Amino acid sequence: MRILLVEDEKRMAQALCEILRLEKYEVDHCANGLDGLAAIESNIYDIVILDVMLPGMNGYEIAKRVRNQEIATPILMLTAKAELDDKVTGLDSGADDYLTKPFMTRELLARIRALGRRALGTADGALSFGDITLDTNTLILTCKTNGQSVRLSEKEYRILEYLIANRGQILTREQLAVKIWGFDSDAEYNNVEVYMSFSRKKLTFVGAKTEIKAVRGIGYELRCEDV
Is 90 exposed, middle or buried (0-12, 13-18, 19+ CB in 10 A)? Predict the structure, then answer.
């Protein structure tokens, strides 16, 4: 899962990035509102953690603009503004959740997990497509018909998660490269090809009929025609 943190306080941002990366999240950071808005508009993030008091543009305005563009990425506002009116303003602006500083790390992580489940449309921490399930907590891929399972690497998991979340759509190599490796990565299309190969081998290993199909000249999609 890729998270965008929009936070201008340097020490807070460093601490949050470290906490989230230890939890195996991919994290990008923006230190001002304008950069944060541009990053959210790329629509590659699964969750946004958004401060309210930011240089350039405040979090309330960012949330409003994002929702006006019909971008549905879950937003968790994380701010020192703790009055009831502030919370109401944040939620009415388009935030999905509102957590005030100071906060407990356990609560922050629990709220992120809840938003992640909501974004992926899963209540039990598992994604399903065709004859496979993908456990979002353990990164274990399971074939439902025979019970065979295997643990995925982080990149393999993120590829299958992205494909399942966008079922019925063809994802381009560019979309996959940006989503999995990020804007600032030097990853090239051959990285996508390599990890697609790894992911396909894992599907074969568990005996799944679900396949990652290459669409010539476009990209990839997940298919399971025999289930």
Answer: buried
C-alpha dihedral over 57, 63, 66, 68, to 10 degrees?
-110
Give me 172's structure tokens.
Answer: 């381009």
Task: Tell me the pLDDT tens digit for each residue of 34-90.
Answer: 999 999 998 889 899 999 999 999 999 999 999 999 998 999 998 888 788 888 999
CA–CA separation, 48 vs 63, rounded Å?
10
Q: Are 51 and 31 in contact (CB under 8 A)?
A: no
> Do 51 and 137 share a domain, yes or no?
no
Give the domain range for residue 76: 2-120
- Contact, 127 vs 134, CB < 8 A? yes
Amino acid at 61: E
pTM for the predicted model, two decimal places: 0.73
Residue 99's CATH number: 3.40.50.2300
**What pairs with residue 79 in β-bridges?**
100
What number of residues does the chain have? 227
Number of domains the chain contains? 2
Q: DSSP 3-state helix, strand, coil percentages of the chain (rounded to 5)?
A: 40, 20, 35
Domain boundary among the residues 90, 120, 150 is at 120
The answer on 103 and 153 residing in a single domain is: no
- Cα separation, 33 vs 52, in Å, equals 9
Closest to 100 in 3D by CA, of 113, 116, 86:
86
